[in-house]
Design goal:
It is a single chain. With 300 residues, this protein is α/β, with parallel strands linked by helices. It contains eleven helices and twelve strands. It folds into two domains: 140 residues, 3-Layer(aba) Sandwich (Rossmann fold); 136 residues, Rossmann fold. β4, α2 and β5 form a beta-alpha-beta unit. The chain is elongated, with a radius of gyration of 21 Å. 43% of the residues are buried. The mean pLDDT is 93.
């Protein structure tokens, strides 16, 4: 990374992506970390990170990097690798006046809390470059799960992908390299047209339940964050199929129905943080630097 990040940085909470981000930033600047138990900071290159208690931080930071999501309740920090709890208000006191705050999937409640103290929170999750590169990490992680959970190779498998967003496009690219037989299902005709160009077979979402697509699919990836695989759809799935839901909450399938029907279904949330934390942490860091570069050049 470049040296565009000024002064000191406080990385607070999050999964192993953020421990990796703190480690990389610590190579060229002073980095404090809060919201991590010591075991979470035992990764490679973590020796330069200064673990702190937010109530006793030696100095206030120029930049505060919050996790993704920042908070589940708008009050406490999302810190899955920390045995305690940290209030967001305590973190505000760790930032210098005029300092910069970043976070991912920032809610209105979090924005309002920081705004009362004079800070705006920039949401790096809204950046297209982060979304695109995260989609690639998600796709590779999804294929890793498929290879681990199935007694067969990807080559020649009949695979169904629901949705045609960034993750689906990345999945098509990766799975095509394995020689998979891919069918793409979407609601928009423009998405189906792009799927054709990508070399996929296509089926419209309204035709899915009554087509042979579900009956033939050995592996199903859902990327749509709304219910598309309800019980009526799931009844048409092969009993030996594997369904991997990559959609964010509330997800895209009825998991209770899948259980009753004896189907194998996995809700693979936050894959970049689980399967590629170092790469994903680097993506977040580069995105933040891109934002700061744009601000410095007046193009933000």
């Amino acid at each position: 990374m470049s040296d565009i990040l000024p002064g000191t940085v406080l990385v607070a909470g999050g999964d192993m992506r953020f421990a990796a981000l703190a480690a990389e930033l610590s190579e060229s600047r002073k980095v404090y970390a809060a919201g991590f138990d010591r075991s979470a900071l035992s990764c490679d290159n973590c020796d330069k990170i200064i673990a702190v208690d937010v109530m006793n931080i030696p100095e206030r930071a120029d930049i505060l990097i919050l996790p993704m999501p920042v908070s589940d309740d708008g009050v406490t920090l999302c810190a899955p690798f920390y045995s305690g709890t940290i209030g967001l208000e305590a973190l505000i006191g760790c930032v210098k006046d005029g300092g910069t705050v970043f976070g991912g999937r920032v809610t209105d409640k979090v924005r309002e809390l920081f705004a009362k103290k004079g800070f705006s929170v920039t949401d790096y999750f809204l950046r297209e470059e982060l979304s695109v590169l995260n989609a690639e990490a998600t796709a590779e992680g999804a294929v890793q799960i498929a290879l681990e959970e199935q007694p067969r190779v990807i080559m020649g498998q009949r695979i169904l992908i629901l949705g045609m967003g960034r993750i689906a496009k990345a999945l098509i690219r990766v799975l095509s390299g394995f020689g998979a037989d891919i069918t793409l299902c979407a609601r928009k005709y423009s998405d189906l047209a792009w799927a054709k160009i990508y070399g996929c077979k296509i089926v419209h979402m309204r035709e899915l339940k009554d087509s042979e697509t579900l009956k033939n699919a050995e592996l199903i990836f859902n990327t749509v964050p709304s219910l598309v695989l309800d019980e009526e759809h799931l009844k048409n799935c092969r009993t030996d199929s594997l369904i991997i839901d990559l959609a964010s909450k509330p997800g895209g399938m009825d998991f209770e129905a899948a259980g009753r029907l004896g189907l194998r279904a996995i809700w693979a949330l936050s894959l970049p943080g689980k399967t590629a934390p170092v790469s994903s942490g680097k993506i977040i860091g580069e995105t933040i630097e891109n934002i700061l570069n744009e601000r410095a050049s007046g193009n933000f």
